[in-house]
Amino acid sequence: MKINRDNLSRKDIFLLNSFGEDVLNLIEDDEVNEVYVNHDYYVWKDTIYGRVKTDILLKESTVRSICEAIAGVNDDIISETKPELGVELVNLEIRAQLVYPPISRRPIFFLRKKPAKVYTLEDYKSSGSLSEAYYDVIVKLIKERKNVVVAGATGSGKTTFLNAILCKLSEVSPEHRLLLLEDLPELKSTSKDVQRLTVSGNKSTKISMQDLVFIAMRMSPHRIIVGEVRNQAAYDMLKAWNTGHEGGFCTIHANSTENTFLRLESLVRESPQVNDTEMARTFIGASINAVISIQKKVSDTGTIRLIDDIILVHGYNSSTKQFEFTHL
Fold first, then answer.
1. What totals of helices (H) and strands (E) does the chain contain, helices first?
2. Which residues contact 320 (CB under 8 A, 6 or more apart)?
3. Of residues 52, 65, 121, the one with CA closest to residue 98
4. DSSP letter at 203?
5. Rg of the Cα trace of the chain?
6. Which PANTHER family match (predicted)?
7. Mean pLDDT across 170-178
8. Could you tell me the residue ranges of all domains in the chain?
9. pLDDT confidence of residue 91
10. Which residue of 104, 123, 151, 155 pairs with 99 in a disulfide if CB–CB is 3.0 to 4.6 A?
């Protein structure tokens, strides 16, 4: 989608011009989620269908100009003496990571866009990323208001896939009121009754994800959706899911469905309300109904995303000290 420049600042417009036509075309392409360069300065793009090296080759001077313009939007600098900078380009809905020597051999940038296009579960199915059997399972989980964790590594496409789930949720339960809780506004929902709460716009007042969960529970939601759970807010989220707000979804950084338990346990244990490991595991086992794993897989044609595993969680067995679950 063409970026509307009418309400942009002069610094934003200067940055867009710095990208050059080829890179800007990728940024404005709704199919593209990430744009970046490695030290050879060929531009890469990432979509739901995989990661592709383009034939666009940039000069080092162009890369430096782009990096300096990105830093300038936030009144910051990037240089060999300050060789790392993460920037939120709020008006452009882009998250940028800049790296300079000596951390990297040459200046590089990595841009992650807020998804412009909402892919559906049907899109994932038609692309080969989601099997027919797993599609049916996910629709059933939505209909039955199960609490579901979407797990995957960094860049695996967890948020994009969660948006596909939210799209189906709006079809299955159009009357449900949704509260979307996020660090940054990345989730998209077509539901009629939806409210978004974010941490990013509240830094001056030090609002946390835990605060957002507490606020959400007082706003009468049918479902609470968390963009990414990454700290002791996991306890508060699971507590909300387990006390009348079932049917929630969240994403988490974990390499597999089974590793999700270890990750959740470490996060829940951060809460001062959780006294020991046994309490944490019992609580998790009682609150989570399913885990969906999305992974990046390397194929002959490049990198693709694949829903590679779904488990149904039956609880935690205190006698065997094991979570009980079934791989589907």
1. 9, 14
2. none
3. 65
4. G
5. 21
6. TWITCHING MOTILITY PROTEIN PILT, TYPE IV PILUS RETRACTATION ATPASE PILT
7. 96
8. 10-113, 121-327
9. 86
10. 104
Q: Are 123 and 314 in contact (CB under 8 A)?
A: no
Residue 204 in this model has a pLDDT that exceeds 60:
no
Say which CATH class 10-113 falls into. Answer: alpha beta
Each residue's pLDDT tens digit, 249-264: 999 999 999 999 999 9
Tell me how far apart the alpha carbons of residues 153 and 164 are, in angstroms, rounded to a whole number: 18
- The kind and range of the H/E element at 302 are strand 302-317
Write down the pLDDT at residue 202: 46
Tokens of 175: 């009357």
User: HSE of 304 in the Cβ direction (CA atoms, 13 Å)?
Assistant: 13
- Asked whether 213 and 224 are in contact (CB, 8 A), the reply is yes
Cβ contacts of residue 12 below 8 Å, gap of 6+?
A: 5, 73, 89, 91, 92
Cis bond before residue 221 (omega within 30° of 0): no
Contact assessment for residue 147 and residue 194, using Cβ atoms and an 8 Å cutoff: no
Residue type, 299: S
* Domain covering 121-327: architecture: 3-Layer(aba) Sandwich (3.40)
